[in-house]
Specification:
The chain is α+β, with helices and mostly antiparallel strands. A 5-stranded antiparallel beta sheet has the order 7-3-10-9-8, sandwiched between helices. Strand 5 and strand 6 form a beta hairpin. Helix 6 runs antiparallel to helix 12. It is elongated and about 85 Å long. This is Heat-inducible transcription repressor HrcA.
Length: about 350
């Protein structure tokens, strides 16, 4: 996604007014409307000239020749960059959130309520994903040869969940090599989240050969056959799909988004792509076309759910680009901080 062009103070103020007016009304914004609300008393003619410059810069569209202008995705990105981050929720909304989570001591219940309250506050889709943190961290792995090219894989997570599966390999691996592969994984990756293990293993398999060649070949075979695949470790909660209202020409995009919301793994992948576990603040992504080409007219506002430095999941709001950005950012940020506070106090 390209960065928006640099514009001057007057252009920036008029662009902000157009974005906020369009978010509020949903109607193309005309120069006369802006002129009536101009603090500087700018004439409609002056504003029209600025709007023409903003259109040339790719920040405004004109749906019809005689209509007003609407912001482009680049305009929304520019607008979001200009937000101060100092906005706060109304006391009644903070009270609603606190009441929603009062007495909750189960993480899955917290995430379920998170999707509900985010949907309520944003009037869009609230999403919460639990289980991408320490719950899915490796404690121990063991391989047992059952027959030629047939291996039992036993994985124990940090929370004591034991998962076993029988794998049919593309080649036979002797028990001694299976033991060596298990030692390698246990010594190098105990305490790592499964997703992080798979990323690092893929890197090592590309780089490390030489004296480890035989061991790494065995590890690669076990890895590719699903030894460290996650199962039911990510609980996904979604609420508010009925809130999605789009223009007629966006119906196909809406159907694509609803399809994504219905498919758990696609939704997990979407949040994983955009909600960086290393980030501290809320992230706003205008246009999701990098992951899903049909979703250029939708926005994701999300944050990781942390307990201290440990990432336990993620939460987000998904909706059309004409969303109340400042209010939604405040809601996501508030709940992310509350998550950290509640689970830090419970430990």
């Amino acid at each position: 996604m390209s960065e928006p062009v640099q514009i001057g103070r007057r252009e920036r103020e008029i662009l902000t007014a157009i974005v906020e007016t369009y978010i509020s009304t949903g109607e193309p914004v005309g120069s006369r409307t802006l002129s009536r609300g101009s603090r500087e008393g700018l004439s409609a003619a002056t504003i029209r000239n600025v709007m023409a410059d903003l259109s040339d810069a790719g920040l405004l569209d004109q749906p019809h020749t005689s209509a007003g202008r609407v912001p482009t995705a680049a305009a929304y990105r520019y607008y979001v960059k200009g937000l101060t981050g100092e906005a706060s929720l109304a006391p009644a909304e903070e009270g609603l959130i606190k009441d929603t989570f009062h007495g909750v001591n189960d993480m899955q219940e917290f995430m379920e309520r998170t999707s509900h309250v985010l949907s309520l506050l944003s009037q869009n889709v609230g999403v919460a994903v639990a289980g991408i943190g320490p719950k899915n961290a490796l404690e121990h792995v063991h391989f047992q040869r059952l027959a030629e090219s047939k291996v039992l894989c036993v994985v124990v997570n940090k929370n004591g969940i034991v998962r076993d599966r029988i794998m049919r390999l593309g080649k036979d691996i002797p028990q001694l090599e299976l033991d060596a592969a298990a030692r390698f994984l246990n010594e190098n990756y105990r305490g790592w989240i499964m997703e992080e293990i798979r990323v690092d293993l893929a890197r090592r398999l590309d780089q490390e050969r030489s004296e480890y060649d035989r061991l790494m070949h065995s590890v690669e075979e076990l890895y590719k056959k699903g030894a460290l695949e996650s199962e039911t470790t990510q609980d996904v909660y979604i609420e508010g799909t009925s809130n999605l209202v789009v223009d007629d020409h966006d119906r196909d995009r809406l159907r694509e988004l609803l399809k994504t919301l219905e498919e758990k793994q696609r939704l997990v992948n979407l949040l994983s792509a955009y909600v960086d576990v290393r980030q501290e603040a809320v992230r706003v992504v205008v246009g999701l076309e990098d992951t899903l080409p049909h979703l250029s007219n939708f926005v994701l506002i999300g944050a990781p759910a942390r307990v201290g430095n440990e990432v336990m999941g993620s939460l987000a709001v998904i909706g059309p680009t004409r969303i109340d950005y400042e209010h939604t950012i405040s809601a996501v940020s508030y709940i992310a901080r509350l998550f950290d506070h509640i689970w830090n106090d419970s430990e």
